Queue: 2 jobs
Job 1
Amino acid sequence: MPVTCDYSRRVRRALITGITGQDGQYLAELLHSKNYEVFGLIKGQNNPRIDLIRTEFPFVELVSADLQDLSSLVAALEQVQPDEVYNLGAISFVALSFKQAELTANVTGLGVLRLLEAIRMVGGSSGNRIRFYQASSSEMFGKVRESPQTESTPFYPRSPYGCAKVFGHDITVNYRDSYGLFACSGILFNHESPRRGIEFVTRKVTNAVARIKLGLQETLALGNLDPRRDWGFAGDYVQAMWQMLQQDEPGDYVVATGHTHSVRDFVDAAFRHVGLDDWERFVLQDPRFFRPAEVDVLVGDATKARTELGWKPQVDFESLVAMMVDHDLNLEAGKAGIELP
Ligand code: NAP
Ligand code: G4F
C-alpha cells in the first residue's frame, strides 16, 4: 500500500543517507534542534562508524540499507515513512573515484536513481509528499566554462565522481519534471569542518600541522598545491539543505562563499595559525597525490540561495582554518597525553 506522508503530523520525520559522514552529522544535529525525528541510513553488517553515531547522536534512529540495493531502500522508506529524505550518501572522495570508477558510478550516480525510484514506489506515482534533497557538487563544473559558477553554468566533470554527480543531478531534475516529485538539488562547493574525513586535503593539512606543532610528526606529503577551491563551513551548508526543502517550489541552488583560495593558501594559513611561518620546511610534494585530471579553480555565485532562501555563510576562510587546526591540536594532544599551554 502506498505510504502518504502526513504533513499535519506535529513531528516531522527525516531520513538521512550518509549519516556517518561529515554533513550527515551536522544535518542530524540541525534537524534534531528543529524537533524532527531523525533517521539515519547505515550500510554494512558491522559498520565501524556506528558507535560514533550511537554515542554522539543518540537521538538518531538507525535503519539498515545500502544505496546499491533498491529493495533495502524501499524497506527503509516503508519503515520510516519520512516527510523529507536527504541523500548525502556517496563515494565522495574524488581521488578514490579514479581507482574505483565503477563503484563510484554505482553508489554516487545510480544510487540517486534507486532512491528516487524507491520514493516513487513507496509514495505512489503521484507521491510527491516526500521531499527529496540531492547532494550535488561543484565538482560537476570541473573544467569551468565560466566564473563564478551559477545554477546555469554548463557542466564539464573531470573525474568519475564528477560524472556520477552529473547523472545524480540530472536524474533528480528529470524526476521532478517527469513525476512532479518535490526534488531539490544543492550544488554545494567544498565545505569543511573538524568532522571532515582525514583523506580530504583540508583536514589532512590541519591534522598534520597539529601533529608537527606537537612534535609528533616531521613532514606533510601533498600533491598539487595550485588548485583553488571555494571553501566554506559544513555547519553553514546543511542549513541551506534544510531551507531548500522548506520552499513552496522545489529548485536547484548553488551554495558557496564566493571566495576562492589555493591549496597553498590553506597550507600557509594553517601553519601560520600555530606560529610556523616557514611551512615550506615541512611540506613535501608526492606524485601519488596528483590526479589524472585536475579541477583547477572553483568559485561559486550563491545569489539565488541568498535571495530565495535567505542563506549566507557565517564562517570565513581564516576562521575555518583556525577552527580546524585548534580542534586537531586538542585532539592530538589528548591522544598523546600532552598538556596544551
Ligand atoms: P562523507 O563524509 O564522505 O560521507 C559519505 C557518506 O556516504 C558516509 O556516511 C558513507 O557511509 C555513505 N555511503 C558510502 N557508500 C554508501 C552506500 N553504498 N550506501 C549508503 N551510504 C553510503 O561526505 P560528506 O562530505 O559528508 O558529503 C555529503 C554528500 O555531499 C556526499 O554525497 C558528497 O559527495 C556531497 N558533497 C560534499 C561536498 C563537501 O565539500 N563535503 C561538496 C559537494 C557535495 P559509511 O561511513 O558507512 O561509508
Ligand atoms: O580535499 P579534496 O580531496 O577535495 P575535492 O577533490 O575538491 O572534492 C571535495 O569537494 C567536492 C566539491 O567540489 C565534493 F563534491 C567532493 O565530495 C569532496 O568533498 O582536494 C582538494 C584539492 C584537489 O585539487 C587536490 O588535487 O586539493 C588537492 N590536493 C593536493 N594535495 C590534495 C592533496 N587533495 C587530497 N585529498 N590530498 C592531498 O594530499
Job 2
Amino acid sequence: MKQITLDYQPIEWLGDRVKFLDQTRLPDDEMYIETKDYLEIVAAIKELKVRGAPLIGVAGAYGMALASLHIYVKGRAELLRRLKDVADNIGNARPTARNLMWAVERMLRVAVDGKTIENIRQALVAEATAIHEQEAGATYKMAENGAEFVNSGMNILTHCNTGPLAATGLGTALGVIINASRQGKKIHVYADETRPLLQGARLTAWELNKVGVPATLITDSTAGYLMQQGKVDAVLVGADRISANGDTANKIGTYTLAVLARENSVPFYVVAPSSTFDLSIADGSQITIELRNPNEVTRFGGISIAPEGTDALSPAFDITPAKYITAFVTERGIIRQPLTENLLTML
Ligand code: MRU
C-alpha cells in the first residue's frame, strides 16, 4: 500500500537524539521536544506526552538507545548493568500496554550480544530504528487486512485515539478507517470524546480532520443511544494488551462499548499489531490496570470540576472479554472466533 504522507510525526530519531510531539498540547499547539536524556522519555510516557501502545513501545526502544549513547560507563559490563536498570525504569513507566515491555526486552536481548561498548551502542540504535519501521509497517498491513470490514456508507464508532499519533504509520483502528477512506469508501466516524483525558476529542478529531475523514464527536455515554437507534454499523478500537484467550485491555470504556455492541448486534473489531499480544498470560484477569491520578477526574485544564476533597477513581483501561470481540485485525491477518484457538495458530 502507498505510504500516506502526514505533516506531523509523533516520534523521530535524529542520529543522537529523539524528537517527539507533545500530545498533551494538542490540538492547540503542535509542539515538538528534542532530547538526549532517556529520563525525559520516561517522563513523557508517564505524562502521556507520548502515548498509545505501539508508540510507547517505539519511544521505549529509542529511550534505551539514548541511554546507551549518553550514559557514561567505564566498560561493557557496567553498560549492560546500567541498561538493565534503564529497561526496568522505562518498562514500568506504564504497566498495561504490552508493547512497552516487549520493546525494551527486545532491546536488552540485542545489547547482551554486543561485544564492545561501541557494538552495543550501534546495535541498539539499529534495533530501535528497526522496531519503529516494523511497527509503522504493521499499521499499513493492518489497514489492508481490516478493509474487508469497512464498506461505503458505514458509520463507524471508535474510542480513544488510535491514529498515527498512537502507533506511528497509519495507526491501528484509525488506520483501517483512514485507508478505507483513501480507497474511496464513503465513511463517517463517531468519535467518543474519551473521558477523562479526552484523547478522542483532542487527538482523534484532530487527526481525522487532517486526513479529511468526516467525523462527529460524541460524549462517551452517547454511544449506546446511537447504537440503539441503528446509527452505528461497526465499532473499531485498538488494544493495549491481549491475553492468550483474547481478553483485551484497552482505554477505559471499551468494555462498555463491547457490551452495548453485542446487545445491539453491532460487530466489534479490535485492531492491534502482534506486539500487543501477550501469550504468556492466560486471560485478562492477569493484566495490570494502570491507575491514574484522581486529579485527572476531579480537575480539567487546571480547573476544579468537583468539590475540593472529592474522592475519585481513574483506571486508565478496562478488560473486554474475548466473547464480545467479533475479530482481531493484525498485521499477520484476521483472527476470528473462536479467538483462543485461532489466535494461537496465527501468532
Ligand atoms: O492512555 P492512552 O492514551 O495511551 O491510551 C491509548 C489507548 O487506549 C489506545 O486505544 C491503545 O493504545 C491502542 S491503539 C494505539
